[in-house]
Each structure stands twice: as structure tokens, then as C-alpha cells.
Amino acid sequence: MSEEKFKKIISHAKEYGFIFQSSDIYDGLSAVYDYGQNGVHLKNNIKDYWWKSMVQLNDNIVGIDSAIFSHPTTWKSSGHLDAFNDPLIDNKDSKKRYRADNLIEDFIQKIENKLIKELNKQKKRFGVKFDEKTFLSTNERALKYTNQIDELKSRFKKALNNDNLSELKNIISDNNIICPVSGSSNWTDVKQFNLMFKTQVGASKESSSDLYLRPETAQGIFLNYLNVQKTGRMKIPFGIAQIGKAFRNEIVARQFIFRMREFEQMEMQFFIKPGEQKKWYEYWKENRMKWHLSLGIKGDNYKFHDHEKLAHYADAACDIEFNFPFGFKELEGIHSRTNFDLSNHEKFSSKQIKYFDPLDQSKYTPYVVETSIGLDRMFLAIFSNSLITEKLDGGSERIVLKIPKILAPNKCAILPLVKKDGLSEYANNIKDKLKIKFKLTYDEKDAIGRRYRRQDALGTPYCITIDHQSIEDNTVTVRERDSMKQERIKVDLIEEFLVKSLDISNWLQ
Ligand code: GAP
Fold first, then answer.
1. Which of 308, 372, 378, 382 to mutate to test the pocket of ligand 1 (most atoms within 8 A of CB)?
2. Secondary structure (DSSP) of 129-187
3. Is 306 helix (H, G, I), strand (E, B) or coil?
4. Sequence ranges of the domains in the chain
5. Dihedrals φ, ψ of 190, to 5°?
6. Which residues does 17 contact at the CB level (< 8 Å), separation at least 6?
7. Residue owning the nearest CA to atom 25 of ligand 1
8. What pLDDT digit, counting tens, does each position of 358-378 carry?
9. What is the CA(27)–ligand 1 centre distance, in A?
10. pLDDT band for position 310 (cuts 50, 70, 90)
11. How many CA atoms lie within 13 A of 422 on its CB side?
12. Would the pLDDT of 1 be above 70?
């Protein structure tokens, strides 16, 4: 997708009240965004869809809402104080700061794009006769690209796993990776940068102590593991889910709401018996992919990607990547976190965090498989995938936001054809009856065609139009967003129609 298209997505989000740059009257605050009058509903609907699938549909998963602040030792135990770093590098000419790993990843991506371009060219040339496997193993240029990608990936992986910062710098120099702003390869050394925001609690300097804004919601779950297990009489395997804000002092904040400094996560920690982590890791990988697909977005927009470098707590980890406007990038992480967190909290707090298994009388520190998805990234995935410009018969165009209906900010729009002749009153009556069950909108300004276009751009699945015939025979027109088909139904049947069409079980089952 072109940069042009991405710009359109960002301006559509602003124009229609989905997302605003934070503090924009002061020229904005970088990598912080506010959700507007329509965005807040799309966001809440995504949360609700996730929460229901986790907490309501799983008998053994419960939810909590823990505080953003926690005891500062939390971050020592979790490893975030020592190891939650990104490798940063500065370009001496442009004075711009980058993540060294991102520079290398982008470089690899460029070579991959060249290879894909070459493949597409040959596919077009030879059509159905084209044999991709033979081409990749014999064509000189394809072989050159493939070898270059493999070599770079393995060198990069090794450098990351050994925390070898000078090797990261070497990879950048050896491949003559340049700064996109200055075009120069005049780089500083690579340094580690801790991503946690620090603040203080207490009135005076002497009595105050350092606090951190949580960089992940997961630690609030670990800190409450014993509370929930005991008070909820939970038996392993069981999960604890949570939705909440997280904060990271990202070095390079870019790509709109993809990488923010304040964002929201939807996380679930699944506590299991040691030794069963492989089974549950596979289970949650499959389960989470099914959740994504249940929303009806085409499957080829998602793929699994195994981590090049495992986080300090993990023995296996992968991402579900989504085809964002700027390519495939991480949408959700699935991590087998071993007992790293619980056993460290046990050590640093000197409290026993063990589970007594009544089935085999064993006592152990549970292992954890985690699913962690960024709510804002999910929003961007849905929003960017749904925004479509459609050619209509007669040559005109319409912009339509084909959001999965279950997530749409408004489920329907009530539109009296004209304001006079009692149509407004009739339409208002319908609105008042429906609004207790559905979030809807009412509009009586402008010609009906313009109003349809506006609802299309907002992603409203149904427009209900009230005309003169409605007053005579109590029927209305229902227009469906995607097909633009219209049907006449009895006023008394609108509620049933909407309930049926928007029933969550149509999606989640
Ligand atoms: N508890 C594990 C954890 O936090 P992560 O891969 O660092 O793992 C999980 O983050 C998810 O949070 C990511 O897949 C992404 O969707 C989201 N996320 C992470 N950093 C983000 C940022 N700066 N802005 C928006 N979303 C972010």
C-alpha cells in the first residue's frame, strides 16, 4: 500500500472523529493520540469482543483490573529494569535517533521486496507455467538476494541474542545502511536505552521514591496471581485476563497509532503445570488466530512470525503479524514465559507463590503462556483494512469503512427523508425505542444521498430511512452498507432484524 493511502487513512480517522493527535492545539505530542467521538466506540467494541471471547467464553479465565503503579521492586523482579532496552543509534549528520534493530530489519525488508518484485515479474511473464521453486534455486539474481537475506538474518539474530551492540553497528556499516534523512552512514556507536518512564511518589525529595509507569499490564496479573487463585479457588490450568494502559518511552515513535508512548494492551496469562508449556503454547497460537479470523478479514492478511530474539522471560515466542499499510508487522505476541516472573516475585518478595496440585499432590511454581495484543494496533488493523474507495455504476466513487458490523461505532442511522410532514417525529419515536439496545445515530440534515455517504464513511452497517409511506403503512427502508441493497420492512421488525444481524454469536462461535 502506498504512503498516499496511509495518509488517507490518517486523515479519514481525523475527519470522521476517530483519532486526533494529542494536544494538537499545541502542535501535538509525539506518539500520543486521543480517540474521538466515533473512535472511542470502535475501541470499546474491540475491547468487548476480546473480553467476551476470553472471560465470558472460557470457564477457566477470569478478569482483573490492576493499578498502573506497582511497588518499584516489581520491575527489578520482572527484569524490566535491567533488560527492557532497545538498541539506539544516532546519525551524526541529521542528528536523528533510530533503533539499530529497526534499521537492519528495514534493510532486510528492502531486499525481500526486491526478491518479491523479481518473482512477480517472472510470474507475469510465464503465467501458469511459472515454477517458483526452480526459479528460486537456479536464477542468479534470486539466489543472490536469498543468500544475502539468509546471511543477514543469521548474523542479526546472533548479535541480538548475544546483546552484541558493536556487531549491530558492524552490520549497519558493512551493509552501508544510510540514514533516510541525511543519506549518510556517519553513525554513533549503538547504546542500550531503557524504555520505562520513571516518576516519583511522595511530597519531598528526601521521602520520595521512584515509581515506573508499567510497560506491560502482565505484571499486575502476576502480582495478583495468589489473590485470584485463592479467592477464586482456581484450579490449574486457568487464566487471568486484563485490559489496560501501558507506557513505553519508544525511541522512534512512528507509523501513527502503531507505535505509541501511551497505549493499551489486552493480555491474558494462562497458568499451567511445568512441562505442559509446549502444548498450551500451540493451543493459544491456534485459538488467537481463530479469534482474528472470526472477524471476517481475509486470512492472507495474517501470518505467524517466530521471534529472532527471545525476550528475557521466554522459552518460545511468536507474533501474529498483520498486513498493515506499511507491510506485515506485529499485531499480537504469544509467549511461553516459563515460571520466570512468578519465581522472581517469589524470590524478591520472600513470599511463597506455589500451587498445590490436588490431582497428583505435587507442589510447583506455575508456568505461564501469555497472549498479548495491542488494542491500538488492533484498531489500526481493522480501520486500515476496512477503508475502501469503491467505484460505482455511473463512474462516481464512494468511500466506505467496511468495519466488521459487530465493531461498528453506530449500528444504524435513523434518517427521516425530510424534516416536515411529521417524518421527524415518527423517526424520533423509532430512535427512542431502539437506542436502549443499540448505539445509533440520527441525522436529518442534507439530501438523503449525502447522508448515506456520510454513514458509509463512518462504517454504519444499516441506514433506516423514514418516508411518507412509513406514516401510511408503518414500513421503513433498510439500506445495507456493503451491498447498498435496500429492503422495506415493517417498523415492528427493525429491532428483531438488527438483533439477528448483529448477534455476537454469529462471529464468536
Ligand atoms: N506482556 C508482553 C508484552 O508486553 P510485547 O510484544 O512487548 O509483549 C505486546 O507487547 C503487544 O503490545 C504487541 O504485540 C503490540 O500489539 C502492543 N505494543 C507494544 N508496544 C507498543 C507500542 N509502543 N504502541 C502500541 N502498541 C504496542
1. 372
2. G--HHHHHHH-HHHHHHHHHHHHHHHHHHHHHHTT-HHHHHHHHHHTT---TTT----B
3. strand
4. 1-69+214-389, 85-194, 410-508
5. -90, 135
6. 36, 37, 38, 39
7. 259
8. 989 999 999 999 999 999 999
9. 26
10. confident
11. 6
12. no
Which residue among 265, 307, 331 has the greatest number of ligand 1 atoms within 8 angstroms of its CB, and so is best to mutate? Answer: 265
| AA identity, residue 227 | N
Q: Cα–chain-centroid distance for residue 151?
A: 31
How far is the C-alpha of 265 from the C-alpha of 258, rounded, in Å?
12
Kind of pairing between the strands at 355-357 and 327-338: unpaired
Mean pLDDT computed over every residue of the chain:
94
* CA atoms within 13 A of residue 128's CA, in its CB half-sphere: 0
CATH superfamily entry for domain 410-508: Anticodon-binding domain (3.40.50.800)
Buried b (16+ CB within 10 A) or exposed e, 320-355: bbbbbbeeebbbbbbbbbbbbbbbbbbeeeeeebeb
How far, in Å, are 316, 445, 479 from residue 378 at the CA level?
A: 23, 33, 28
Q: Pocket residues for ligand 1 (CB within 6 Å)? A: 216, 218, 248, 250, 259-260, 263, 265, 267, 330-333, 370, 372-374, 376-377
Query: Reading across the β-sheet that carries 440-442, which strands appear in turn?
Result: 440-442, 412-416, 462-466, 475-480, 486-490
Residue pair 507/56 in contact (Cβ under 8 Å)? The answer is: no
Region 206-233 average pLDDT: 93
% the chain with pLDDT above 90: 84
CATH 3.40.50.300 fits 85-194, yes or no: no
Q: What is the mean pLDDT of residues 152-177?
A: 94
**Contact at 8 Å (CB) between 75 and 196?**
yes
Q: Give residue 508's pLDDT.
A: 85
Distance in Å, CA 265 to ligand 1 centroid:
7
Enumerate residues 6+ apart whose C-beta is below 8 A from 56. Answer: none
Q: What element of type H or E holds 322?
A: strand 316-324
pLDDT at 218: 98
Does pTM top 0.85 for this prediction? yes
Strands 33-35 and 19-21: antiparallel
- Residue 478 CA to residue 248 CA, distance in Å, equals 46
CA of 165 to the centre of ligand 1 (A): 23
Which distant-in-sequence residues (6+ apart) come within 8 Å of 185 by Cβ? 172, 173, 176, 177, 178, 179
CA distance linking residue 371 with residue 318, whole number of Å:
10
Task: Considering the domain delimited by 1-69+214-389, tell me its CATH architecture.
Answer: 2-Layer Sandwich (3.30)
Residue 272 grid cell: 499451567
Contact (Cβ atoms closer than 8 angstroms) between residue 215 and residue 246: yes
pLDDT digits (tens, 9 = 90+) for 431-480: 999 999 999 999 999 999 999 999 999 999 999 999 999 999 999 999 99
Cell numbers for 99, please give them. Answer: 533503533
Look at 104 and 506; give whichever has higher pLDDT: 104
- Tracing cell 454513514 back to the chain, one arrives at 455
